[in-house]
Amino acid sequence: MNIEQFLEEKVRSIVKDIWGVEPDTGQLQLQQTRKDFEGDITLVAFPLLKISHKSPEETCNAIGEKLVELHPEIKGFNVIKGFLNISLTPSYWVNTFNDVLSQKDFGFKAFNQTEDPIVIEFSSPNTNKPLHLGHIRNNLLGMSISRILEKSGKRVVKVNLVNDRGVHICKSMIAWMKFGNGETPQSSGKKGDLFVGNYYVRFDKEFKVQVEKLKAEGLSEEEAKVKAPILLEAQELLRKWEAKDPETIALWEKMNGWVYKGFDQTYSDLGITFDKTYYESQTYLLGKAEVAHGLSKGVFHKKDDGSVWIDLTADGLDEKLLLRADGTSVYITQDIGTAIQRYNEYHFQEHIYVVGNEQEYHFQVLKLIMKKLGYNWSDALYHLSYGMVLLPEGKMKSREGTVVDADDLMNEMVETARDMSNELGKLDDVDTSTTNQIIRMIGLGALKYFILKVDPKKNMTFNPKESIDFNGNTGPFIQYTHARIRSVIRKANEMGIIEGKTDNNISPNEKEVTLIKLIGKFPEAVQNSASEHNPALIANYAYELAKEYNQFYHDYSILKEENASTRLFRINLSTVVANTLKNAMWLLGIDVPEMM
Length: 596
Prior knowledge:
By secondary structure, this protein is α/β, with parallel strands linked by helices. Helices cover 55% and strands 11% of the residues.
């Protein structure tokens, strides 16, 4: 039970005792006492005046006097206008701390295996290009929110939908057929997804040359773009794929196989895992039967050219295409089908789509269509919308080959961490294998933290050098704090200091109480982050805890403290801070080293 819950229970009982009315939850407003006032927590009296029919000061004094009289944990109080500032005894804080110390995974809840899960779809790459910086944000958000929800007590199923079909895939295939000369990832020494992505870029280069040639022959730009021979070849290849032409299917499977091998390596390096992977080639037809069902119910309508639409203008949206005139499906048709498929598979309590904010309209439409089709679980569909990741030099473009490749970025981050570590000289006495592991943790931790500390809804600019700074709100700062504490614990063990329960008679100083309060807020941070689908709340919690601990470490001796009880308490406090930082960073997919 945290301090707010503890006091809410006591105040509720006192208000009912004094004035005969039990207050609603909304009438009991507790908040941290401002730093310029004495006290640990403040009760706002104004909502209770309807019950007390007294002045704010009289109401505060009546409640404060009863709290001190009835509860030995309350040391005292003071009243500032309508605010009751309550101070708790040192023993309350020690007891609270010992309770945390006794819990192995404080702040984490076990999930119920029998409850309906939350399905989270993220990553959703195209097999015509490697994962890039934008994908990194998607994958990190998806993986982190999966962990946060799971540790908030939810059962989670992580799924990936790979976009492995369509004309964009055929563009890479045509380019390889025309310009590849039988080259493979193995013969070129390139990672499979990067290898195929290069041919997607090669297609666009040739396409532009052909467009310019057609324009020189007198065609308009629009006509040239439609009639470029290489594009017509890609479209013909798609028709062959849809007709299941054996040669086309064989090439498609071979090139996708190269890409999947590359993806798997990137996912492994990023620490990304899935419980199930779906493929668009297997799901793109799923929604067509539902469209026919919607037509029969009058939810959809067919136009003269045979295309199928839904009119959502009465709902403040637009008309939306569901099937083209030639009977082929569009993305939303597939999403209708996969949503139904997944509900039938999992009976999810929530389905989260981690997709960029440019698709907000798409998911508004999807949710509304499912509702109109009569699926009562449509409100369980949730779009975790996130903003664009920019670089200091601007926006990336896949087809022009100006994206920041995920693998290159990870390698750059690790090498930057290596340079900074060499400069600081902190790992000079550590063996090479351990040094490489630590440097990798630092580099990837910097990348992940810098991206996840930003509210998902916001656009962000990723600055590699800024992200790896060992000071300030960065991953390496928090990792270093954890390593510093582990060093203290190792030295304590070498000194023969035996871990044990903190003596109830010690009196924590102000900074120690502040740390206990912050530690006590970890469960709340996990729950808030889960309910808001926002890992940034965990990232910023971890930073605040690390910052507060470093101030404590700077101001007070730990191992050199002469009083044995105080020394043991500070070692215990340091241990709990380290464990809490480790758990918080794990929620973000970040490892913390034992030394740095």
